[in-house]
TrEMBL record:
Keyword Lipid biosynthesis: yes
First-tier enzyme category under EC: oxidoreductase
Keywords: Coiled coil, Endoplasmic reticulum, Glycoprotein, Lipid biosynthesis, Lipid metabolism, Membrane, NAD, NADP, Oxidoreductase, Steroid biosynthesis, Transmembrane, Transmembrane helix
Protein name: 3-keto-steroid reductase/17-beta-hydroxysteroid dehydrogenase 7
Transmembrane segments: 231-254
Localization terms from the record: Endoplasmic reticulum membrane
Organism: Anabas testudineus (Climbing perch)
Amino acid sequence: MNKVVLVTGANSGIGMALCERLLSRDTEGLQLCLACRNMYRAQAARAALLTSHPTAQVALLQMDTSSISSVLTAAQEVKLRYNRLDYLYLNAGIMPNPQFDVKAFFKGIFSSNIITMFATGEGILTQKDDVTSDGLQEVFATNLFGHFLLIRELEPVLCQPDRTSHLIWTSSSNAHRSAFSLEDIQHRKGTQPYSSSKYASDLLNLALNTHFNKQGLYSSVICPGFVMTNLTYGILPSFPAFVWSLLMPVFWLIRMFTNTFTLTPYNGAEALFWLFKQKPESLDPQAKYHSLTSGLGNNYTQPRKMDIDLETSEALFEKLLQLESEVRKKLKEKQKASQHLHSA
Ligand SMILES: NC(=O)C1=CN([C@@H]2O[C@H](COP(=O)(O)OP(=O)(O)OC[C@H]3O[C@@H](n4cnc5c(N)ncnc54)[C@H](OP(=O)(O)O)[C@@H]3O)[C@@H](O)[C@H]2O)C=CC1
Ligand SMILES: CC(C)CCC[C@@H](C)[C@H]1CC[C@H]2C3=C(CC[C@]12C)[C@@]1(C)CCC(=O)[C@@H](C)[C@@H]1CC3
């Protein structure tokens, strides 16, 4: 039986590079499903993958992870199409309206914190978040909650007695405990929704392992390192693409000191690809698997312990379940109201 692999945010950057790498390893034995919000971009990605792998099975699925109804519809479609789901890559993510603190950046360059700053972006980035039509914070909804709902909906295909399934989150080394609060899981009040959402995915990863390992479902998190993609280009929008290219020698130099500068989507997808080849039972639920690239350009994956604890991960899991039941209730009421309107 062919393995079924679903990747969210598969039409560009790290998600797209992962698809390319998976098909290069095994073109015939995989059923790849690209879950994307924009079907034009999804079709372009599918066409590019089929150009290099003409015999591959590549399907498309429309899904906007920031929209509850879109996630629920997409999950129904997955259950109709597939009776198994071996790998679910939870990769779609946004960092909207990033503000780059130039002063903090230059201060960081001349401090002992320089390596941490380049590896994590800590202290130099904030974002302005939005609210979705479901009334959720956009970064939380896109990066975390949409994926949580998807997993909950797909439980019947993910938890099967005769085999294991693997959830793999694209988190970040920008995830930081100080940006996250259990009292404000959506990060309505702060200025670091991205860091908060990624820290929440690290916590949720642990809770998912606690609750689902017995049912054959495993979860892992990775950090791709600093990769040049649409997401990072958005951090300095005044820089045209050629300026980023001109900066490449500087970045290669920085890579000599911090191997987190993976830079290309291919390199950034290293840990995602490495996890595909591992037995999920052998992995550490408290570790984040980092894509790293050496000064000489060699890729490797390294686990690093995360700053998370069981108690907070359980508390977050409970809060997410509670939010899930609230949004489902709201959605039902909305559907009832529109039915009334139609029948009147
Ligand atoms: N680049 C980096 O340095 C790092 C990236 N990451 C993480 O890697 C992941 C991939 O990002 P990256 O490849 O860098 O950036 P890209 O912007 O290239 O990829 C992000 C993908 O997510 C999709 N996406 C965004 N919002 C939604 C949504 N609401 N519903 C469905 N899909 C959506 C995008 O679709 P569309 O094309 O339609 O926008 C795109 O396919 C993200 O989770 C990011 O946080 C983590 C650490 C570092
Ligand atoms: C103009 C200058 C010569 C160079 C500017 C460099 C910064 C824009 C980058 C240095 C470290 C980068 C970084 C990220 C974004 C861009 C930098 C701040 C991230 C925060 C991107 C998203 C992530 O998830 C992190 C892992 C990245 C960490 C490093």
